[in-house]
Amino acid sequence: MCTAAGASLSRHVADTWGASLEQPLIRRAALPDWPGVAALLVAADLPLDGAEEHLGDFVLAADSEGNLLGCAALERYGHAGLLRSVTVAPPARGQGLGGSLVQHLLDTADAQGLDPVALLTTTAADYFPRFGFRVVPRSEVPDAVQASIEFAQACPTSAVALLRSGGSAARLGQNAAHALPVRRFDTRLATLADAGAIARIYNQGIEDRVATFETLLRSEEDTTSFMKGT
Ligand SMILES: CC(C)(COP(=O)(O)OP(=O)(O)OC[C@H]1O[C@@H](n2cnc3c(N)ncnc32)[C@H](O)[C@@H]1OP(=O)(O)O)[C@@H](O)C(=O)NCCC(=O)NCCS
After folding, report:
1. pTM (two decimals)
2. pLDDT of 94-143, one tens digit each?
3. CA–CA separation, 22 and 227 (whole Å)
4. Which residue among 105, 126, 127 has the greatest number of ligand 1 atoms within 8 angstroms of its CB, and so is best to mutate?
5. Domains, the chain
6. For residue 161, how many other CB atoms are within 10 A of its CB?
7. Whose CA is nearest to atom 31 of ligand 1?
8. Which residue from 93, 103, 162 has its CB within 8 A of the most atoms of ligand 1, so it is best to mutate?
9. How far apart are alpha carbons 185 and 194 in whole angstroms?
């Protein structure tokens, strides 16, 4: 799901984009769909490597006239899944189609007991946490997924890895957090005596890779100096 160069097939997609978006249908891909799928991927600058071999793992969104509006794939590697090739034609974006395709495949993953589900992206790391994915170091991705064409050949090493573990609970957990009664904490201004604790909390965020792309751990001295403005 990282980006790839080239756009020679984009005309094929452009020719079909004028169609109506009413009630898009999500269906499995079949052999004759490959040119349309390839065109969607190329137009989105996503890699083709390994995609045709896995055409049977694709789901497609099509309008009432059969024109392709989007696609996504779930490849299987032992007990783990690889979500890739998620894209929606530009005129159809922002209407929940990408979300429907992703959710459809995650429901499939859950039904088939595929856990965890991994993905790589250079462009949409902020899109996938809503489905329960979190950014992880590549080393956390199961070896079998790392050996896939997507991981081993198609994506640059700069692509961000995301992982969804625990099936639908990963997302339910997120939603449930909103439903829980809010526990109230007292707040106060920090003092220099808090510098060690602040550094530990900050470093935990880096180690968990949950809320920051920072990689440099902070010492108590760093935090003290930051608080003093020196
Ligand atoms: C990412 C993509 C599949 C989303 O499809 P979509 O149908 O527009 O998505 P949805 O309608 O389900 O969701 C829209 C929401 O996602 C957000 N979003 C869309 N693309 C995003 C991206 N690249 N990064 C972060 N958020 C993104 C929108 O801002 C919108 O947010 P909101 O709900 O807070 O308003 C589509 O933008 C696309 O094809 N991008 C190019 C290919 C790509 O980057 N694929 C990702 C895998 S590498």
Report:
1. 0.73
2. 999 999 999 999 999 999 999 999 999 999 999 999 999 999 999 999 99
3. 55
4. 127
5. 10-179 (3.40.630.30), 192-228 (no CATH)
6. 23
7. 94
8. 93
9. 17
